[in-house]
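G.,

No rush on this.
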Amino acid sequence: MVLVIGPYFVFATTLRHGVRWGERMKMLEALAPGDRDRELALALDPAGIPAHIAIIMDGNGRWAKRRGLPRIAGHKVGVATVRSVVEDCANLGVQALTLYAFSAENWKRPRAEIDMLWRLLRFYLRHELEDLQRNNIRLQSIGHVEALPEKAYEELRAVERATARNQGMRLNLAINYSARIELVDAVNAIVDEARIEGRLSDLTIDEKMISRRLYTAGLPEPDLLIRTSGEMRISNFLLWQIAYAELYVTETLWPDFNRTELLRAILDFQKRERRFGGLSNAAPCDDASRGAQQPGEDLEIAGIVVSSQ
């Protein structure tokens, strides 16, 4: 079965995550022929949409400073960007989207700015619940959100409960989040369970045990990590989960990160070859082409001779 879009483009409605692609890529329905974003969307490989996208939303303050505005103006525009990106990812068929909203280190910022961020969070939660429900999005938070002001915490939990049964994209808001603390929490949980069950002396911790106790347990690990504003660092975000994620850094500041930027990031992701520590699919695999060392043969590497004897 095929879906025809315009006079020149035809593609099969292949299955992705058990749902027909033509039914999942709702974005195309809102884009007129000739629209730049439509052309970018049509260039996507349906089978190559990242299952999980993580974004470090950076640059709100610089966006405001360049315009002679207070920092909070950048945060307000950044909230509108969140809404757009969330809806676009859901319409593209992304399974999970994790947004770095507030790090555990952000408490060092001026108190007035932090208070305004909590007010913006409450504004977002109140005004976006209807859209989250309409798009079948489940919102969850990761991080030590119990440290939030009471009203912000209560509204966050209320939206989590209201969307708990939604079966579409999972939206993770990383709030008061630290990847190092997440790992410490995971290890402590393992140790506590072993102590309660009386097997602490025989405890051996492995990767699967840690993964099952991370805040993102049950979700695919991020395929694509996007950072806006051009900064070349991870900032203590999902350190365990992004071990094999593709990194995409754009100079665009978060308030200016629109649908075009998102589609370009995904297209760049689809051009990469993900080997997960293995070899290229095109690489020869016979012993001769790998330069395998034969018995009795000395191997010279960078001037150092390693004997097989």
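When you get to it, here's the other one too:
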Amino acid sequence: MVTLMDPNDPQEERVFLALRRLQLPHLRDTLAAVLSEAAKEQWTYLEFLDQILRREVDAKQGKRIRMGLQIAHFPCVRTIEGFDFSFQPSADERLIRELSTGNFIAHGENVLIFGPPGVGKSHLAIGLGRKVVEQGHTVRFTTATALLSVLGKAESEGNLGDKLIEYSKPRLLIIDELGYLPFERRAAHLFFQLVNRRYEKGSLLVTTNQRVSDWGIVFGDEVLATAILDRLLHHSHTLMITGESYRLREKRKSGLIRSRLTNVDPEQTQRETEVKPRKSQTAASITDNTKA
């Protein structure tokens, strides 16, 4: 609790009350230190005003970001700055830096990150999500398995509509690990409902280890898979990452794996690299490329 520097000073009391009413908690908590620093540095009136307003804005921004990160439910701390582009040169650094600006959020554009396990898809998804939070947008992170479990439970309890609204509210919804497990037919329909509800209204960021030509197997329905892909790929940015798993690299460094192992079949890699990371591709065009 903040105490007055001089409880008998009515002017000081009025200042504290005004700061509370104006909801300027940082300035209220640091007023004594700021006044002392101002006297020591002999700030002008304008310099004093600039300092207190800048510090209050920074404090509010920091609090907002902390709350946004908490609401996002990121499973761990990952940043774009911490991603090793030299180890994964197939990751389009220019595009990732562009996405880090968050401009795609304003247009409701999607981001799809393709690649085998361990190449950094989740790292990039979390890192981009943190950037979006820092820019003032709401973000929600979930895995595909957890998402479908929640939606399935909501449907059985009769409140699917409420859950779909909940997952439609964030400006960016991140769905990690799509395709690691195949969907039951009903779960695939629930996923379509969510994608359709967010279509051109809110951005989706999806990571997957499956080529789009295999999404019919993942969803158990070629027609439904095509409908989902058409909505995801319309107004989208795609990233294709190939290369060695970070986890395998660490095992190799520790001596557990003697030779350089890769988790990507060379012929499959050649086919996948034909999928150019570019904006606004159609499901049909990417499917054709990955089958080539």
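The two ends are 67 Å apart (CA to CA). The first helix runs from residue 10 to 21.

Enjoy the weekend,
O.
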